[in-house]
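Pasting two entries for a bug report.
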Amino acid sequence: MANENETQTPVEEQKQAHSYALDSKCPSCGGPLKYNATIQKFKCEYCDSEFDVKELDAKSNNAAKAENNKKDNDYVEDDDTVYVTYTCPDCGAEIVADEQTVATFCLYCGNTSILKNKLTGKFHPDLIIPFKVDKAQAEEAFKNIHKGRMFVPKDFNAPENIEKIRGCYVPFWFYTTDVTSHIDGTGKNIKTWTTGRTHYTKTDTYRFSRDAVIALNKIPKDASSRFDDNLMNSIEPYDYTKLEPYNHAYLSGFYAEKYDEDSEVSYPKIQKDIDGLCEEKLRSTTTYSTVSVVGRKFEHQIKEKQYALLPVWMVNVKYKGKMHLFAMNGETGKFIGNIPLDKKKVLITTIITFLVSIVGCFLLNLIFFLISKI
């Protein structure tokens, strides 16, 4: 146990001083602002004032926040930190958030709290795509998940599960890279024709090689180990022309996480896919009937790395002891998930189908028998 008389180190004092939450306040009345995906603006829940990002920046002249922002930029987060305790500025409750959480909700008053000390330095995002699909649309999609799927359990999309849907900004890396690409192989042109009763086939075989420097812009890779890569890949694409400079105000009303896989760790995980994309581009320049690549070489030069937050609606449902995760693209509304099967429904349907088949065969045989007796 630590001695009560021990003095804190400068790092500990700095950490304690910076364990605070920053909320987006309405410039008109001081009430909490939340980002409204439907109107694409920030709306006050009390006075109904609406602001876009530029208006909010222009009206936010709070000196205390400015001083806090300055301190944040000087703060270096301790990599050994696992949990951070912060105080809600609205009701005073103390909330504990884990290392990756950068925006959460107060459990007591419900207001959004942005842990701004976690968004500085290397963790400060460059870009963001704001939510365009609101919570009502996400809830409706999950509510209708059984449509066209007869084996979905009736209680799977129960109201208590629908209420678990939350909007979350997921961390992504964007890579702009030049790939020096080379392939060589064989191509074949096959021609067939018929003269009289004779069929002919002529095959011409060629050797080929292709070389090019292929420039790729903003190749995405999710930067959190806590989100399933296949799930994140499935809800893409986003419209990357809609990327905007990061502003912490967009986090109001949503959860958010910071990356736990840096750019050097993330890039090798998509390098194979990038190689395949470059190979396909080179193959497309050939005019042969069939192409077989026998040699390939790719060299990557990363020109730029950008850190971005992308919007996702998520719900994690525990059913029969197993977790089922669903995700919706917060910009396009594309919905993906691992849907469970009601084994009882499957068994009953199988038995009924089998019995109907048996009865059908019996009736057909009976009809044929009676006809043969006429």
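Entry 2 (this is the one that rendered wrong in the viewer):
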Amino acid sequence: MFVILVYDINQKRVARVLKKSRQYLYWVQNSVLEGEILESNYTKLKIELGEIIDKEEDSIIFYTFRTTKYSKRETMGLKKGGDANII
């Protein structure tokens, strides 16, 4: 599956969330990661992030797609991140 992860995390925890997310997905822009991920790793990522965030203060949104066949991605301006950043 293809996942886009968008987060709004308190500054105290943002580095930990980014580091954990980059173990599974590619960082593409501030607070945005994306990539292909196995269903089992997607479940594992959600559990691990759930242990880091404060559910009363932080927010993570996952957009999931079965395929990218009908999707298109365009970038305007400075390209941030990339597809070689998985740790």
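Dev reply: Rendering is fixed now. As a check, the viewer should reflect this: The mean pLDDT is 90.
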